[in-house]
C-alpha cells in the first residue's frame, strides 16, 4: 500500500517498517547521540543499507531489530545510572560537600563488557577473526603519550602496552608469526593463530604525531572494547598453553622496559612448573612413605619454594634457548610452524642501541633465535663469543668482532619473509640495503615482479633443493647453508649460460650446414647470394609484420563479435572487468616504464 | 565538642593564678589564642620549611625567602603577641592593651616606623618608608641588587634566619630562642617549654560564698541536652556504614578476566537478535610501495608528484611512496592517528551490505558459440570493387538473377554493373541525388525503380530477351498515360508521366520520396515520403514496427523495438522473423510468433545502422553501419516452433572509409550466392565473397 494511501493507525510495511533513521532511533531509545554512539560501538551495531531509502538518501538507516537489540541492553540502563550518579557528584561538589563528593567518587557504578564480548563473539574463532583492528589500535595507543586534555590516562596507555606485550609474547612463544613488513606507516605483522591470519600494524617506536582532527571520545570507546577483548583473548591463549594469566613479571625487568623479555622468562618458568610439579609429587610421595604424615606438608611447600627460586635464576642467558627447547618438544604443530621455529635456530643475535628493540625482541625469538641487547637486564653481553649476528643501524661500526656479522635490521625481516637465511652481504653496515618488499603482495597476480623478489625466489629454490637431507652429504656441509646457497646459485647460473651457449652453437651449426648445401649444389657462395638470403629473410619478417596487425584485428573482431551476442548484464560485467584489468595493466606499465628509465639513467 | 570547648574554657585561665580580676573580654581573648596559633601555624610552617631548605642549600633559596618576608613578619608579630600575652600576665592589663598597636615584649624593641597599619604600597614610590617617633622621615636603605644579596647570603652561614622587615625596612635576624619557639609551634606544642599543658586545674574563682552568678542570663538549654543535629548525623553515618554505603577498606582489585570461551560447543552460530552479522571488511594490506625502502620503480618522479596536484582530490593517490636509506631515518607516520580514527568511523558509521564478489574469468562470460567453420559459406573477403560513382553510393540493388546490380548515388546517376566483371553497363543521369534503387523482383521484368528527389522513376533496363523487352515496353508505354490504377490516391499527390529523356515513367510526388520498395510478386511497389505514407506496405516503422495485412487493409501487429529510431528493416524469407536496425547501432531480431518484444538485441555497431539485409536462401543476414563496418551473422530459423532461432556473428567486413561522416550506406545479399554487396559513402561498391 503506498504511503499516502495508508490510513492512520495502519501498520507500516516493508522498508519503512524495517528500517529507522538514526535520529529516530535516538528519539526512540531516549538517549543522547554520544550515548547512542557508545552503545553502537560497544554492541557492534552498524547501519544497514535498505533496499529502498524511505526517508531520504542522505540518512543513516539502522535495522529496527538492531535498535530493539540496543533497547534491551542492560548497559543502556547502566549508562543512565552513571549519568544520574554523576549528577549527584556534581551536586555535592556544587554544595561544597567535599567528603560526600569524595565518598561518591570512590563508589562510582562500573560496568563490565565480558557479556558483550561473549555475545558478539560466541566462539573464540570469531573473536580471532575480528582481532586485527583491536590489535592495531592497542598497539597504536601503546605508543601514544598520555594527553590529559583528551582524557587519555597514563593507566590506559600502560594497559595497552601490557596487553600488546602479552600478545606478542604469546605469538613469539608459539612461533606463529608468519610475515613482517616495515612500511612507512609502521611495522606490519601477520600471525597465524588457530588457522586465522591476524594482521596488525605497530607504529614506529617514536613520538607520535598528534592531530586535532580526531575525536578521541570515539577512539577511546573503541579502545575500551578492544582492551577488554584482547585481555580475554590473551587469557584464553595463555590458558591454552598452560600459562597463568595475568602474568606476574619481574619488576626489575619491567622497570628496565624489557617487558617482553620478562614475559619470556615468565613463560619459561611457567612451562617448567608442570614437569617440576610432577617430580615434586613423586618426591613427596616417596617422602611420605619414608617419613610418614607428620611435617610433609611444610616440607613440600618449602620444596616448592626452593624450586621456584631455582627456576628464576638471576640472569640466565639461555632462557630463550630453553624456551626454544621446550617448544621443540611439542610435536603437534604443523609444518609451517616447524619451519618458522627453526629459521634462526643456533643463531645468536645482539641488538645495538639504535635498532628498534621491541620489534626485534619479538621477531627473533618467534623464529627460534636467541637475542640480547645493549643495556641492563640483557641475557648476554656484547662480548659474548657465541653471537653470530649483530644488528646495527649506523653508518659505520667502530669495533668489530670478526666472529660475527654486522647486519642491518632489514635483514631479519627479509629473512623472515623469505623463510631462508639470506646472504648478509647486501645488508652489511654502511651499505644501502636491497629494496624491502611486501610479503602481502602476490606478485604474479599483480603482473609485476620486482627484481629483488626474483632473486629471493631463486635463493629459495636453491635452498629447497640443496637443503634436503641427502644421505651422502656430510653434516658439516649442511650446517653452513649460506655456502650451499651460493653454490646453488652459481651452479644455476652456470647451467643457464651453458644452455644459451648450446643454443648459439646450434644456430651456427645450422647456418654452416646450409652454406655447405649451397656449395654442394654448385652455387657460388658470393656476396650477392648472401644478400639475397638476407633480403628473403627481411621479406619474411616484413610479411610477418604486415600480418601481425591483421592478426590483432582478427582477435579484436573475435572479441567484439562474442561481445555482440552477450546479454546486456553480462556485457556490462565483462566491460567492467576489462576496465579493472586495464587499470591494473596501466599501473604495471607505469612501473615498467620507470624501471626502464632508471636503468637507462644508470 | 561542647565539652571540649568548655574544658578549654577552663584550661586557659588556669595558669593565671595570680590574676586578681579578669573581665570577660580578656577571657575571650585568652580563648582565642590557641585557635590563632593553629591558624597561623601553616604560614610559619611554610617559612620554616623553606628556612630548612635554605639551610641545606646554603642560601640558594634567597628569593623565596625575600618573597615570604611579609608572612614571616606578620606571623612573627602575632606569634610574639600571643606568646607574650601568655607570659606577661604578671605585668598587668596595660601590657595587654598594648598588644594592639605595638609589641609589648621586653626583648622586642618598638618599631621605628610609625605610619601605622596602612598599606605599604603607598610608600613604594617615596624616598622614605615612614616617620620615626620624633616625626622625622625614615629614609629607605639602599637596595642591594639580587646578585649581591645572593652572594652575601651564600657566604653568610646565618643567612637562613635573616628576614627582611619591609615595614621597618631592616633586616631582622631571628634569635636562637625565636627559632626554637617556631620549631615548637610547628610540632604543635606550646611555644614555651616551661608551660605544662596538663597541669591540674585549680579553680581560681571562689564559688563558695558567691550569692550571684557572674552573668544574669539564664543558662541556655543547649548546655544541658545533647545536640539533635549531631545525633542525626551520627545516626545517618551509622546506617550508611551498616548498609555498606560507606566502606573504609578499599575494594580489592580483582582480575576481571576469566576463561570466556570455555567450550565452544554449547554456543550457537546465530546472532542474538536474528540478524545476520556482516563482518567489516579488513583494511587493505600494505603493498610494495608502502615499504620504507621500496624498489626504485615504485617512487614517482617529481613531475608525477606535481601532476597529482592537478588531479581531483578524490583521484589523488592517498600515499606517495618514499625511500629511506636506513631504518633509523624513518620518522613517525603523520597520519597514524587519523587513519586509525577513520577506520573507527568506518566501523561504526558505514552502512554494511553483503556484496557478492564475482571471482570468475571474464572469458567464461562469453557464450559458447558454434564454430564459424561449420557455418560456412559466408562472405569473408572483399573480392571486387565497383568504382565509377563520383559521390556517395546511397543505394544498391541486385537483380533477381544475380547477374547485375544497380546503384544509385549522390552524384545523381544510376548505374548498372555486371556482377562478375565489375563492368559498368549503363548510366542514367537523373540529375538529383538518387536515394533508392530497386529491381523488380520478377525476373522477366527487369524494371528498375529509382527514387530521386520528389520523383520515382521506373526505368527499363533493357536486359532480358526480346519477348520480355516487348512486354516491358508495352507495360511502360501503356501505363504511362493512364491514371494510377488501384490506389485511391488523389492525383494531386502522385502524377504519372512518361519520362522524356530516358525510357521510363516518372511518378511525381508532392514531397521528396525517401524510399521505394517492390512487392514480392513485382506487381506493386510502395514509396515512402516522410510523414505521409503513400502506399500501404507490410511494415511501417519509426519507433515501433507495425504489421499490416494488405488484403484486409488493417493493422495486425505492433512490434516494440525499444530503440530510439528505426533506420532499416528486413524480413526473413520465411516471413516470421524480422530484423530491425536502429540509429543507435542496435540490431533487433523479432520472432513474430514469439512476442512483440525483440527476441534478441545485438549491440554491434557504435554508430547508426544504415541498412540490414537477409539472404534469400542462405541462413545469413547482415547489417551495415556508418562506422564503416558490415556485420555478417548466421541466423538459422528452425521449423520447430519451440526452438529459438540461432544467431551467430560470423564476420566483420571492413574496407570502406569514412567520407563526410558516413560509412557504409547500403548492403544487399546476392540472391543465390553467399555474397554481400556494400555501398559506401566513399563512392565504392564492394563485393564480399566466401
UniProtKB/TrEMBL annotation, chain A:
It is found in: Nucleus, Nucleolus; Nucleus, Nucleoplasm. Coiled coil: none annotated. Gene3D superfamilies: BRCT domain. GO terms for cellular component: nucleoplasm; PeBoW complex; preribosome, large subunit precursor. InterPro entries: BRCT_dom (IPR001357), BRCT_dom_sf (IPR036420), PES (IPR010613). Residues 279-289 have a biased composition (Polar residues). SMART domains: BRCT. Required for maturation of ribosomal RNAs and formation of the large ribosomal subunit. This is Pescadillo homolog. It comes from Tetracentron sinense (Spur-leaf).
Automatic annotation (TrEMBL), chain B:
Gene3D superfamilies: YVTN repeat-like/Quinoprotein amine dehydrogenase. Residues 24-42 have a biased composition (Polar residues). Its main location: nucleus. WD repeats lie at residues 386-427. Residues 1-15 have a biased composition (Basic and acidic residues). InterPro entries: BOP1/Erb1 (IPR028598), BOP1_N_dom (IPR012953), WD40/YVTN_repeat-like_dom_sf (IPR015943), WD40_repeat_CS (IPR019775), WD40_repeat_dom_sf (IPR036322), WD40_rpt (IPR001680). This is Ribosome biogenesis protein BOP1 homolog. It comes from Tetracentron sinense (Spur-leaf).
Amino acid at each position: 500500500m503506498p504511503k499516502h494511501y495508508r490510513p492512520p493507525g495502519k501498520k507500516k510495511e516493508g522498508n519503512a517498517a524495517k528500517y529507522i533513521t538514526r535520529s529516530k532511533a535516538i528519539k526512540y531509545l531516549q538517549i543522547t547521540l554520544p550515548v547512542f554512539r557508545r552503545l553502537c560501538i560497544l554492541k557492534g551495531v552498524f547501519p544497514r543499507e535498505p533496499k529502498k531509502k524511505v526517508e531520504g538518501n542522505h540518512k543513516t538507516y539502522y535495522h529496527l531489530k538492531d535498535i530493539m537489540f540496543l533497547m534491551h541492553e542492560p548497559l543502556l540502563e547502566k549508562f543512565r545510572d552513571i549519568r544520574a550518579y554523576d549528577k549527584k557528584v556534581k551536586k555535592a561538589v556544587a554544595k561544597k560537600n567535599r567528603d560526600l563528593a569524595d565518598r561518591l567518587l570512590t563508589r562510582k557504578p562500573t560496568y563490565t563488557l565480558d557479556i558483550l564480548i561473549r555475545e558478539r563473539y560466541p566462539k573464540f574463532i570469531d573473536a580471532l577473526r575480528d582481532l586485527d583492528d583491536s590489535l592495531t589500535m592497542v598497539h597504536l595507543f601503546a605508543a601514544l603519550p598520555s594527553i590529559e586534555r583528551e582524557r587519555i590516562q597514563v593507566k590506559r596507555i600502560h594497559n595497552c602496552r601490557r596487553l600488546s606485550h602479552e600478545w606478542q609474547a604469546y605469538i613469539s612463544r608459539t612461533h606463529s608469526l608468519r610475515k613482517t613488513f616495515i612500511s612507512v606507516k609502521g611495522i606490519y605483522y601477520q600471525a597465524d593463530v588457530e588457522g586465522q591470519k591476524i594482521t596488525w600494524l605497530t607504529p614506529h617506536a617514536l613520538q607520535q604525531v598528534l592531530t586535532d582532527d580526531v575525536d578521541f571520545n570515539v577512539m577511546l570507546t573503541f579502545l575500551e572494547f578492544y582492551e577488554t577483548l584482547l585481555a580475554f583473548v590473551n587469557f584464553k591463549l595463555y590458558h591454552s598453553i598452560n600459562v597463568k594469566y595475568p602474568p606476574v613479571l619481574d619488576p626489575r625487568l619491567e622497570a628496565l622496559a624489557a617487558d617482553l623479555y620478562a614475559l619470556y622468562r615468565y613463560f619459561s618458568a611457567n612451562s617448567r612448573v608442570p614437569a617440576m610439579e610432577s617430580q615434586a609429587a613423586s618426591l613427596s610421595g616417596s617422602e611420605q612413605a619414608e617419613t610418614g604424615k607428620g611435617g610433609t606438608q611444610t616440607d613440600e611447600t618449602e620444596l616448592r619454594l626452593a624450586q621456584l627460586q631455582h627456576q628464576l635464576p638471576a640472569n640466565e642467558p639461555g632462557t630463550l634457548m630453553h624456551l626454544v627447547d621446550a617448544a621443540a618438544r611439542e610435536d603437534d604443530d604443523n609444518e609451517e610452524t616447524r619451519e618458522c621455529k627453526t629459521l634462526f635456530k643456533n643463531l645468536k643475535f645482539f641488538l645495538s642501541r639504535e635498532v628498534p628493540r621491541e620489534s626485534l625482541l619479538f621477531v627473533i625469538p618467534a623464529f627460534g633465535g636467541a637475542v640480547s641487547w645493549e643495556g641492563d637486564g640483557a641475557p648476554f653481553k656484547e662480548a659474548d663469543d657465541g653471537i653470530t649476528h649483530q644488528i646495527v643501524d649506523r653508518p659505520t661500526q667502530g669495533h668489530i668482532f670478526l666472529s660475527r656479522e654486522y647486519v642491518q635490521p632489514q635483514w631479519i625481516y627479509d629473512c623472515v619473509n623469505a623463510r631462508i637465511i639470506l646472504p648478509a652481504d647486501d645488508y652489511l653496515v654502511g651499505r644501502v640495503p636491497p629494496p624491502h618488499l611486501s610479503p602481502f603482495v602476490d606478485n604474479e597476480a599483480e603482473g609485476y615482479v620486482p627484481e629483488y623478489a626474483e632473486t629471493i625466489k631463486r635463493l629459495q629454490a636453491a635452498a629447497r633443493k640443496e637443503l634436503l637431507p641427502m644421505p651422502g652429504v656430510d653434516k658439516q656441509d649442511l650446517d653452513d647453508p649460506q655456502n650451499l646457497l651460493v653454490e646453488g646459485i652459481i651452479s644455476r647460473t652456470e647451467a643457464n649460460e651453458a644452455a644459451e651457449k648450446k643454443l648459439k652453437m646450434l644456430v651456427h651449426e645450422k647456418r654452416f650446414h646450409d652454406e655447405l648445401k649451397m656449395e654442394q649444389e654448385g652455387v657460388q657462395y658470393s656476396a650477392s647470394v648472401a644478400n639475397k638470403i638476407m633480403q628473403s629473410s627481411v621479406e619474411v619478417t616484413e610479411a610477418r609484420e604486415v600480418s601481425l596487425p591483421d592478426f590483432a584485428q582478427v582477435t579484436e573482431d573475435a572479441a567484439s563479435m562474442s561481445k555482440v551476442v552477450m546479454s546486456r548484464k553480462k556485457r556490462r560485467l565483462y566491460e567492467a572487468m576489462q576496465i579493472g584489468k586495464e587499470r591494473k595493466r596501466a599501473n604495471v606499465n607505469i612501473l615498467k616504464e620507470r624501471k626502464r628509465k632508471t636503468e637507462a639513467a644508470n | 565538642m561542647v565539652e571540649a570547648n568548655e574544658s578549654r574554657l577552663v584550661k586557659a585561665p588556669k595558669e593565671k593564678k595570680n590574676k586578681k580580676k579578669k573581665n570577660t573580654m580578656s577571657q575571650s581573648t585568652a580563648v582565642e589564642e590557641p585557635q590563632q596559633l593553629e591558624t597561623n601555624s601553616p604560614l610559619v610552617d611554610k617559612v620554616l620549611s623553606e628556612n630548612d631548605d635554605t639551610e641545606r642549600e646554603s642560601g640558594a633559596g634567597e628569593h623565596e625567602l625575600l618573597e615570604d618576608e611579609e608572612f614571616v613578619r606578620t606571623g612573627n608579630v602575632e606569634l610574639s603577641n600571643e606568646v607574650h600575652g601568655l607570659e606577661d600576665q604578671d605585668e598587668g592589663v596595660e601590657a595587654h592593651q598594648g598588644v594592639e598597636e605595638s609589641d609589648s615584649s621586653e626583648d622586642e624593641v618598638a618599631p621605628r616606623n610609625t605610619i601605622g597599619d596602612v598599606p605599604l604600597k603607598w610608600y613604594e614610590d617615596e624616598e622614605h618608608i615612614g616617620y620615626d617617633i620624633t616625626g622625622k622621615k625614615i629614609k629607605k636603605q639602599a637596595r642591594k641588587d639580587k646578585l649581591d644579596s645572593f652572594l652575601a647570603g651564600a657566604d653568610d652561614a646565618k643567612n637562613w634566619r635573616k628576614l627582611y622587615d619591609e615595614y621597618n625596612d631592616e633586616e631582622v635576624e631571628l634569635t636562637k630562642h625565636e627559632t626554637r619557639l617556631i620549631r615548637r609551634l610547628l610540632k604543635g606544642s606550646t611555644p614555651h617549654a616551661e608551660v605544662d599543658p596538663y597541669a591540674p586545674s585549680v579553680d581560681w574563682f571562689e564559688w563558695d560564698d558567691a550569692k550571684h552568678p557572674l552573668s544574669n542570663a539564664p543558662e541556655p538549654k543547649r548546655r544541658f541536652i545533647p545536640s539533635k543535629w549531631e545525633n542525626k548525623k551520627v545516626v545517618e553515618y551509622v546506617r550508611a556504614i551498616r548498609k555498606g554505603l560507606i566502606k573504609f577498606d578499599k575494594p580489592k582489585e580483582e582480575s576481571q578476566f576469566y576463561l570466556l570461551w570455555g567450550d565452544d560447543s554449547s554456543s550457537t552460530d546465530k546472532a542474538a537478535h536474528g540478524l545476520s552479522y556482516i563482518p567489516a571488511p579488513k583494511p587493505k594490506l600494505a603493498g610494495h610501495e608502502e615499504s620504507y625502502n621500496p624498489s626504485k620503480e615504485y617512487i614517482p618522479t617529481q613531475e608525477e608528484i606535481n601532476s597529482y596536484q592537478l588531479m581531483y582530490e578524490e583521484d589523488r593517490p592517498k600515499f606517495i611512496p618514499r625511500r629511506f636509506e636506513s631504518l633509523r631515518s624513518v620518522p613517525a607516520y603523520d597520519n597514524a592517528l587519523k587513519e586509525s580514527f577513520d577506520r573507527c568511523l568506518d566501523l561504526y558509521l558505514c552502512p554494511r551490505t553483503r556484496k557478492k564478489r564475482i571471482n570468475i574469468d571474464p572469458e567464461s562470460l562469453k557464450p559458447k558459440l558454434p564454430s564459424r567453420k561449420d557455418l560456412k559459406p559466408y562472405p569473408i573477403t572483399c573480392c571486387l570493387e565497383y568504382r565509377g560513382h563520383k559521390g556517395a553510393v546511397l543505394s544498391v540493388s541486385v537483380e533477381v538473377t544475380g547477374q547485375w546490380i544497380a546503384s544509385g548515388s549522390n552524384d545523381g546517376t544510376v548505374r548498372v554493373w555486371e556482377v562478375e566483371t565489375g563492368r559498368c553497363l549503363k548510366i542514367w543521369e537523373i540529375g538529383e541525388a538518387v536515394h533508392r534503387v530497386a529491381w523488380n523482383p520478377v525476373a522477366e521484368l527487369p524494371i528498375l525503380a529509382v527514387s530521386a528527389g520528389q520523383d520515382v522513376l521506373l526505368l527499363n533496363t533493357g536486359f532480358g530477351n526480346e519477348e520480355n523487352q516487348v512486354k516491358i515496353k508495352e507495360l511502360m508505354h501503356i501505363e504511362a498515360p493512364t491514371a494510377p490504377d488501384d490506389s485511391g490516391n488523389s492525383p494531386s499527390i502522385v502524377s504519372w508521366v512518361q519520362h522524356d529523356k530516358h525510357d521510363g515513367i516518372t511518378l511525381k510526388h508532392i514531397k521528396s520520396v525517401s524510399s521505394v520498395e517492390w512487392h514480392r510478386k513485382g506487381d506493386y511497389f510502395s514509396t515512402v515520403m516522410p510523414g505521409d505514407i503513400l502506399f500501404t506496405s507490410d511494415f511501417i516503422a519509426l519507433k515501433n514496427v507495425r504489421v499490416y495485412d494488405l488484403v484486409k487493409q488493417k493493422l495486425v501487429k505492433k512490434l516494440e523495438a525499444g530503440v530510439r529510431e528505426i533506420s532499416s528493416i528486413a524480413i526473413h524469407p520465411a516471413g516470421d522473423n524480422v530484423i530491425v536496425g536502429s540509429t543507435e547501432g542496435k540490431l533487433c531480431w523479432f520472432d513474430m510468433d514469439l512476442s512483440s518484444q525483440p527476441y534478441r538485441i545485438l549491440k554491434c555497431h557504435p554508430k547508426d545502422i544504415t541498412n540490414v539485409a537477409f539472404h534469400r536462401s542462405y541462413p545469413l543476414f547482415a547489417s551495415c553501419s556508418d562506422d564503416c563496418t558490415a556485420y555478417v551473422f548466421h541466423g538459422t530459423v528452425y521449423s520447430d516452433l519451440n526452438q529459438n532461432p540461432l544467431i551467430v556473428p560470423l564476420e566483420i567486413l571492413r574496407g570502406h572509409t569514412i567520407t563526410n561522416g558516413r560509412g557504409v550506406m547500403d548492403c544487399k545479399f546476392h540472391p543465390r550466392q553467399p555474397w554481400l554487396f556494400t555501398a559506401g559513402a566513399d563512392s565504392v561498391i564492394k563485393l564480399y565473397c566466401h
